[in-house]
Amino acid sequence: MARNERVRSGDEGDEQDGGSRLESMATALVERIVDAGIDGIGPMDPASVVADQARGRHSRVEDAVDDLVRGHAKLAAAGGFVTGLGGIVTLPLALPANIAGFYGIATRMVAGIAHLRGYDLSRPEVRAAVLLTLVGADSKNVLQSSGFSPTGRIQDLALGRLPGPAVMVLNKGIGFRLMSQAGTKGLSKLGRAVPVAGGAISAGADWWMLRKIADSARKEFVERSAIEA
Question: Is 99 helix (H, G, I), strand (E, B) or coil?
């Protein structure tokens, strides 16, 4: 084999290995988020349990949804404050923990809203719809790049039926987009490197981001009884 051919072959192998690593990372990220945010892991209760607890405190479903959003917004703000408290000194260690914690909290909140409004969290389509809510305005692009015809409504995904392989492809696409957003989120925190003050800024940013995700979840996961009536 000529030298330039060996070089090209090596480059292609490196690209394939890099792509495989990224795919594995995207899949692992989605699995971790599902474990922590939907099924519950460690100190985090399953989304259905937290949602049922909120429902038990209120006579109306929408009041329970409001309760769920308020509680998770406080958790996100607290996590942002703690991880931003140390400034530039603790940022390299605190930032990954903040991102992982934020997505876990956001996932549990969205899954809880879906549960309260009548969606079955054991269904893979509903789980994918919950994760897709996290990417916000990028959801259409994820649907397109994953080979789906976007209707513009995550709800249609939650109400549909998809074969297992299709859900796997979609989840991988969601994982890639969340990894990209996590990188952007991390860069945005580089300006919050002042001790103590950085904690307050980070808390406000995480609170705002979670409320934005909550607004999307409220819009997409319409009460199933209203749809099927």
Answer: helix
